[in-house]
């Protein structure tokens, strides 16, 4: 839809160069095929050596990242757009305590914060505010403790939780969320 409307008539749609996911990883945040095609990152046309023009969505996300401190909330945006903005900020390491607060109650589905600098218990209130929309969280290598882990107890649809190398999570913390069917 958006990609088709914003490209020139003689410009073909190349669906082979789709960038699905966060920083090259797979993500479940796209809700339909047109999202992947219209929001794909710029690609190189190998045959001509020319870089294709970025999508309107890419340009908007880039501008939001540049002016990120001007925004107090993204909760009024559709979930898939908020998810893309969040993912971009994570990949570019522009997420801070105050920026994260703008994503409170955005119904994000996937939070890939593994190895993210500064990620600790203070962030877990905003993480848990995603509520039943939250499907997967990567806490790997973070400073999350048992106290932070308990915030996830209310995220009823959480399917995948990764906390590799979280040295401050003990058996007691795991017992607090025990009984949940996580893919750990």
Automatic annotation (TrEMBL):
Pfam families: LRR_6. SUPFAM superfamilies: RNI-like. It comes from the Eukaryota. This is Uncharacterized protein.
């Amino acid at each position: 839809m958006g990609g088709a409307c914003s490209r020139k008539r003689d410009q073909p749609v190349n669906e082979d160069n789709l960038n699905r996911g966060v920083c090259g990883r797979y993500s479940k945040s796209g809700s339909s095929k047109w999202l992947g095609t219209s929001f794909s990152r710029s690609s190189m046309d190998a045959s001509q050596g020319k870089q294709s023009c970025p999508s309107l969505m890419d340009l908007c996300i880039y501008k939001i990242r540049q002016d990120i401190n001007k925004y107090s909330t993204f909760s009024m945006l559709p979930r898939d757009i908020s998810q893309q903005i969040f993912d971009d900020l994570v990949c570019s390491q522009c997420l801070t305590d105050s920026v994260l607060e703008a994503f409170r109650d955005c119904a994000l589905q996937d939070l890939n914060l593994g190895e993210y600098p500064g990620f600790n218990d203070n962030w877990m209130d905003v993480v848990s505010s995603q509520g039943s929309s939250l499907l997967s969280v990567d806490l790997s290598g973070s400073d999350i403790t048992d106290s932070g882990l308990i915030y996830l107890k209310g995220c009823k649809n959480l399917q995948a939780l990764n906390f590799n190398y979280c040295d401050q999570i003990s058996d007691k913390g795991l017992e607090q969320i025990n009984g949940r069917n996580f893919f750990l």
